[in-house]
Each structure stands twice: as structure tokens, then as C-alpha cells.
Amino acid sequence: MSLVVKFWGVRGSLPSAPPPQEWSYHIEGILRNFFSSGYREPSQIAKYLQSMETPLVGGYGVATTCVEIQSPQAQLIIDGGSGIRNLSEAIMKGTTGRSKGPFHIFMTHFHWDHVIGLPFFTPHFIPGCEVHYYGVQPELEKLIRGVFAKPYFPVPFEQLKSKVFFHVLEPRKPYQLEDMTITPYQLDHPDPCWGLKVENGGKAYAHCVDTECTRVTREELAEDLPLYQNIDLMYFDAQYTLPELAEKANWGHSAAQVGLDIALRENIKTVLFAHHDPGARVEQVLELKRQTREYYESREKFASQKDQKLSSVKWDFAHEGLEIYL
């Protein structure tokens, strides 16, 4: 094992969950399928639920972007969306990561959905704990201090009990974090947003969420092309369908088909799509998945007709709590 990647928040723009009425309808559908699937006894309920993919039962998640990456010697957190609260609770219980720190948080950018959970990251309030922030933005410290400020949050930055450190990274320059090598590359998003390539032991993860990916070709990507090369797992923004992508130009988010094209060209092994729209329910994400499968199959068919070999790419839509071993 070189890297373990866990997704604590995969929702985009703001935390969002279906209202109780919709959950009731969803659960009713699950119960109906219990009998049509051949089950009859209450003792079979657990087996029935375990036979289904997690999102079909519990949805894709409600929390905004937070990704945890662990290597044999280090732990890195990407972004402080609302998902970081659940990660914080797991850390305090000693069920994940290094419960005593130090803690390392890379910030891609500072839109609300990526900072909303930072004040609820408990290590900030533990005396002697070290929290290290990383980002390309020169104003990194000022921006983090602004998250802990009245009247937006009752505890100002100056009253935090932990020791907080700030590290401004150079664009596209590798930085060594214990046994991880991390390199920031620019994404296509309103207000500068930086993706991250994380490498260890010959494995590589590419964080490409909050990008419209208006630059697609190798020539357009230019100095940011390495973010997509020699990658084992790419986490890619797929908030929209292709028609929505055209309607919402310059909104800073992409579609799964765009990510698939890059993955096929660059021989990326696995792609997970995320930044699910706050209005997207289970059925809508499943529809995105259907459209993506249709597109992938059309690419395979076209390659076959041209007597060409299409590289194999595993792909899926990420859900909260998903854990990937590289």
C-alpha cells in the first residue's frame, strides 16, 4: 500500500440533503424491491442491503469537499468542506489517521463550500496540537484567519489553542511532505483554484475538482499537463451533464465525459467523478452515471470500428465514505 484515499465530502457548492419526504419515497422503493428480489424474511434484510451498492441505499452524501490521503508516514487533508467535521470526529476517536497530529491541510481555493468545515476541525482547539496549512495563494494566512473571525464564528483565530503554521507553495514545484511528494497545478475555475498531484511509492493521485477544464488538449494544458499524467486515480469534477456544461459556461465545473476523454488519452487507470450538484438526488446522479457509461461505450465502439485499441479506464461516481487503496 502506497496511498489510501478516503472521501469525506463529495458534494459541491453547499451541503445538501433530500428533504424527509424524498427520503421516505426512496426508502419505500428499497422496501418494494426487497420482495421483487426474492427475499421474504426479516432476517434477510441485512443480506439484501449488502447486495446493493452503497449509494443505492444511502445516497451519495451531503457533505462538501474534503479528501484524506494517507501514506505510510504522512496524512494529508485536501480542503475543509463540511466533510472535515466527520473526519475530525474520527480522528478524535482514534479510528483514522494519526490522532495526535501534526495535521496537514492543503487548500485548493477559498470558496465557501471548501472552508465551511474548518472551524469544526477539533485539533484547532487542542493545546500543543500542530495544524499546517498549505496553499499556492500568497494570502493563505490572511484567508484562513478570516474563517475564524466574528461575527462568522464565535472563536477568533487568536484564541485557537493549537499551533497553526502556513506554507505557501510554488506553482508546479514539488514539495516533500514526509514520504509524500505533492505538486500543485492550476485548474480552470473562477478565482484561482489549484489541483494537487500526490505521489508515493510509485503511485499517484490527481485532485481535479472545481475545474471546468476549458483547457483540454495537451497544448492548452501546457505546464499543467503533468497533473493528468502517470496517474493511478484521478478525482474529477462532474457536476453537470454536457448540455448543462454549455449552459453554465464560466461557472467553474465540468462533466464526466470531459474527464473520460482526458483519462483515455493519458492512460489514467481509475477516475472518480464528484462535486455532485447540491440539487442532485440519487436518481439524478445515477442518470449522470448512465450517460457516462453510454459515452464510454460509444468511444469503445468508435475505436473498434477504426480498428484502434482504446485504453481501459475504470470509473465511477464517488460517494461519501468511499476508500480507495493504491
TrEMBL record:
InterPro entries registered for this protein in UniProt: Metallo-B-lactamas (IPR001279), RibonucZ/Hydroxyglut_hydro (IPR036866)
Segments passing through the bilayer:
none
Alphabetized GO MF terms? hydrolase activity
Species the sequence originates in: Bdellovibrio bacteriovorus
> What is the official name of this protein in its record?
MBL fold metallo-hydrolase
Q: Which UniProt keywords apply?
A: Hydrolase
The record's annotation in PANTHER family points to: HYDROLASE C777.06C-RELATED-RELATED, SLL1036 PROTEIN
The segment(s) forming the Metallo-beta-lactamase domain are: 63-275
Source organism superkingdom? Bacteria
Q: Which Pfam families match?
A: Lactamase_B_2
